[in-house]
Amino acid sequence: MGKSKIFILMLSAICFLTVGTSCDDNESYAERLEKERKAVNAYLSGYSVSNEIPADLDFITVEEVGEEYAPYYRIEPEGNVYMQVVRAGDRDSIARTGDKIYFRYSRFNISTWYEEGGVVYEESNSVDMEYAAVHFYYNDFTKTASATCGIGIQLPLSYLGINSEVNLVIKSQYGPDEEMSDVTPYRWNIRYIKSAL
User: Fold this and answer.
1) How many beta carbons lie within 10 A of that of residue 111, not counting itself?
2) Is 144 inside a domain boundary?
3) How many distinct structural domains can be found in the chain?
């Protein structure tokens, strides 16, 4: 066998091994969704979880509020969004379609938390007022600000008033645009407010 044929065979073998290895490194979308599901389930396993919101929403405002006592309520039928009520807010000030709602937040990646044994790398505009509050237009996804934030962030306002505070577990499909393609679930703490200050 000539040197050129041996070279071509060796080059082919290297290419084959490289392609085979890179396929192992690339997860399918279904595999990423499964990893997301496991991470979210692991996070929620540390809390009481209710698959439905109480019919009497005043019960939330009186009894089950706060990070120590409140369960996580599944507020999206497929289990993409779970809400823990920290503060119920002003029930006389309900968001209406098109209202500009500001919010301050802190959040962490649940997949990273799961993979690194409970380590939290937090992102926030909540404490340092130098960072502006972000906003969306309630229930109006024709506006870029609303579409960019994702639907999950808005769902608690279907149940609670302005000035409420919640912890949310949001899977990628209901999160901001960039989390959808990355299949990244986040745990958010959000305070809904009427002004940017």
Assistant:
1) 22
2) yes
3) 1
